[in-house]
């Protein structure tokens, strides 16, 4: 057996707010996954998919156990940047879209990053790591 694809499924409170946020960041909607219970976006060169489900509809998938993102993390997705300057540009875009910055831009080893959460508290960072 061989796994062909991996994607993420996350619960959200408001699909329209989620759609507005990720559209403002410039991520492409995964067109065939748009309805009253689900929105989906493509991330990166490999088109990694993140599905955003209305929390009430998503509880079946996690046996009604949802993480309280105010108390901890479920996962942090890392998004690559080509330079430190691009990381700083993403910071402006994320703030303008309404993202919450939880880690200001900073050096990390040879790299440079900042961390943010979306309107539902899902955590991401933009990271530049020299080749």
Describe the fold and architecture.
This protein is of the alpha/beta class and 131 residues long. It folds into 2 domains: 1-63, Signal recognition particle alu RNA binding heterodimer, srp9/1; 75-131, 2,3-Dihydroxybiphenyl 1,2-Dioxygenase, domain 1. It has 3 helices and 8 strands, in the order E-H-E-E-E-H-E-H-E-E-E. It has helices at 15-24, 55-58, 84-97; strands at residues 7-12, 28-34, 38-43, 48-54, 76-80, 100-108, 111-117, 123-128. The strands form 2 sheets. The chain has a 4-stranded mixed β-sheet with strand order 1-4-3-2. Strands 5-8-7-6 form a 4-stranded mixed β-sheet, covered by helices on one side. Helix 1 packs antiparallel against helix 3. The protein is globular and about 40 Å long. The termini are far apart. It holds the Pfam family Glyoxalase. Residues 4-129 form the VOC domain. This is Glyoxalase. InterPro entries: Glyas_Bleomycin-R_OHBP_Dase (IPR029068), Glyas_Fos-R_dOase_dom (IPR004360), VOC_core (IPR037523).
